Amino acid sequence: MKPDAFPPSTAAGVRVVVRGLEKSFRGQQVLRGIDLEVAPGELLVLMGPSGSGKSVFLRHLIGLETPDSGEVLIDGQAPTEDLRSRRRLAMVFQSGGLLNSLTVGQNVGLYLTEHRLATPDEIQRIVKEKLALVRLSPDSARKLPAELSGGMRRRAAIARALTMDPQLILFDEPTAELDPMVALTIGREIVSLNRRTRATTIVVTHDRDLAFGIAHRIAFLADGRIAAAGTPEEMRGCDLPLLREFLAADFSPEPHPTNDA
After folding, report:
1. 113-124 pLDDT tens trace
2. Looking at the structure, do residues 70 and 189 belong to the same domain, yes or no?
3. Structural domains counted in the chain
4. What is the pLDDT, as a whole number, of residue 214?
5. CA 119 to CA 123: how far, in whole Å?
6. Which helix (H) or strand (E) holds 211?
7. 93 lies in a domain?
């Protein structure tokens, strides 16, 4: 799973600029002055331990949180609802966010249906096209989310985000709770989509294999700050103690006790 060389400046993606971003909840400071810039078409992975503020940062990028101070700019503008629509910003949540009462096809086409952006026949065509992009068969459109595996549900959630033809795609822990082989498949899908769509892509994860396998550039978030940033090669050679500790940590679950004597 090798990312392409950095995309050309003609990429369809948007530039993301974050300056001095701070956020607190109930007196607890989560983000402590983040400065970060993501180039159009870049595939950036924001990596860090659980509780470091990764998901809170991601929610600021799509306008679901308001900064206490600092700013987030998408092509020079704050991520308002109007900008999300015009610049086509999409987010794939960790849970996938599929509605269990709808078929996969209805889930994928939901944004188009609710906003009446296409006729039913056009929506059906777009749904089929986006499912194919994430390597899901047309038959999967007729199934309920509960009938799919975890990896297939995650891919269906990506297909739903793609119906907007986004210029910025945000992924929140896309391989969480997936086995290693399925996680590898999802990583390949993210790389492939970035290559084909040229959308600016930001992936938040604590999955080190995913980060080093797909990123053009990695930013390491610790204690609410960007502690280090660089290419995968630069990050492997970084001697920052917090980063070295994170890369060396064993995140595998402890074995459950058994009744064997």
Report:
1. 988 888 999 999
2. yes
3. 2
4. 97
5. 6
6. helix 208-214
7. no
Within 10 A of 180 (CB to CB), how many other CB atoms are there? 10
- Same-domain pairing of 110 and 180: no
Count the neighbouring beta carbons within 10 Å of the beta carbon of residue 247: 16
CATH number, position 194: 3.40.50.300
Closest among 6, 42, 16, 43 to 210, alpha carbons compared: 43
Residues 107 and 66 in one domain: no
Rounded-to-integer distance, Cα 76 and Cα 61, Å: 13
How many Å apart are CA 172 and CA 48, to the nearest integer? 12
CB 45, CB 203: distance < 8 Å: yes
DSSP class per residue in 30-55: EEEEEEEEE-TT-EEEEE--TTSSHH
Q: pTM of the full predicted structure? A: 0.85
Distance separating alpha carbons of residues 207 and 1, to the nearest angstrom = 14
Enclosing H/E stretch for 128: helix 120-133
For 173-190, the pLDDT digits (tens) are 999 888 888 889 899 999
Q: Which of 169, 209, 173, 172 is nearest to 192 (CA)?
A: 169
Residue 225, SS3 per DSSP? strand
* Burial environment of residue 131 by CB neighbours within 10 A (0 to 12, 13 to 18, 19 or more): buried
Q: Considering 117, 137, 165, which residue would you say is the last residue of a domain?
A: 165
Which residue from 14, 4, 60 is spatially nearest to 164, judged by alpha carbons?
Answer: 14
Query: pLDDT grade, residue 93 (50/70/90)?
Result: confident
pLDDT, tens only, 14-23:
999 999 999 9
For the chain, helix, strand, coil in percent to 5 are: 35, 25, 40
Residue range(s) defining the domain that contains residue 111: 98-165
Residue 115 CB coordination number (10 Å) = 10
What average pLDDT does this structure show over 198-216?
Answer: 94
